[in-house]
Amino acid sequence: MSEPRHFAYLDAVRGFAFLGVIFVHAGLASGPFPGRTLFCAGGYGVQLFFLASAITLCQSMSARQGIDKNPVIFFYLRRLFRIAPLFWAAMAFYWIFPNVMPAFWLGQWAPLGVHPGYFVLTALFLHGWHPYTFNSIVPGGWSIAVEMTFYVFFPLLFYFVNSLKRAVIALFLSFFYIKFMVHNGALFDSIYPYLEKHCYSDIPEMVRNFFLGSWFPASLPVFLIGFLAYYLLGNPTVKGIMQSKFWARSLLLFCGIALLDWFMPGGSSFVPNLLRIALTLAGIIIALAGAAPALLVNPIICYLGRISYSCYLVHFAALGITLKLFGLGHQLTAASPSFDAGGPGLNLWFFLKLLTLSLLLTIALATVTFHTIERPGIELGRRLIQKIAARAGSTAPSRGPKSADARRRPDK
């Protein structure tokens, strides 16, 4: 049997998600310049990754239920071998070469120092449940923790959120959850004092706020919106409408305008920002799944999407190396984390140079790690699944003929 179908638009989505991430990190390292606020909104690229992940996993699980005798067990094995090898390699790299980035980039998340136990929790993907381990071992590792926690709950969510109707109900529940439990702090106000008393205390405000605003309980609604997008993508009426260039590009334009408006200060606060942005990003994905403009779903952005996981983990090192090339490796500190080149115009020029060089270096490094770590890890997981399936007398997924896209990038 063939592997689940591969979709180019999802590669493009991941490519844009990564661009958003590197935009924000390059922007934060630069002094004030025109448009800096908009570039820094690229931090929502992580939420775009989450949406793409939920959609892809729903598509994969649906397809594999007719292929795998043990779809849940095989799901966990695929996720582990897809994520863990490169993440563990990143742990080793950033531990062996801690000065590849300005020291404060990681040190600020564990102000009392990094303890050996932090490495254990991170290696087990449990670092998403402690403020000091959340982002202190691997830069950007917090999102991997959230993603891996989502994987734990995904089979259960897929079982219960199994229709468009239930996905809409989940959306409404997400609104009330974010609005009254997360956005207004009711959930955290009730449980955090207990956690602070018994698990950790005296957490700096920056670390506390980042942790509570980004850990899995706060990010769960974004994944649920991904379920909604998956069922909308499979709805015949929606699919028919999105096959029209007019409607697909109208939706894309509307969502783009909405994002620009919501990223600007002074907008309405009735709908929590995270929810409305995630919904708008989901609308963009649905539009791209239809009659997507070739300008947006093109070979370059799709390639970036295929290596986006490697890009995400290595781009911090690429930024750090580029800053060192500019002679700024030791000038940036926690008190002064950005470089002011002398004015808005000069800062913009510095940002463009930093972004361009670090992006090119990221793509080069990520291409290497993709082929030497990611793909071998995925292939190892596939062989293990085949052995388990053979011993159990079940029918393992075939490694028969694949499409060109499937050969270039294994299913995520």
Structure overview:
It is a single chain. With 412 residues, the chain is mainly α. It has one domain. Helix content is 69%, strand content 0%. The chain contains 18 helices and no strands. The chain has helices at 8-28, 36-40, 45-64, 71-96, 104-107, 116-123, 141-160, 164-182, 186-198, 205-214, 216-233, 236-242, 245-263, 273-289, 299-306, 308-325, 344-391, 404-408.
The termini sit apart by 18 Å
* Count of alpha and pi helical runs: 18
Total number of β-strand segments?
A: 0
Biggest beta sheet attributes: none
How many discrete domains? 1
The share of residues in extended strands comes to under 5%
Rounded mean pLDDT is 86
Overall form: globular
Backbone structural class: mainly alpha
Rg calc: 21 Å
Binned, the helix content reads 55-70%
H/E order of the elements? HHHHHHHHHHHHHHHHHH
Regions with pLDDT < 50 over 5+ consecutive residues?
A: 394-412
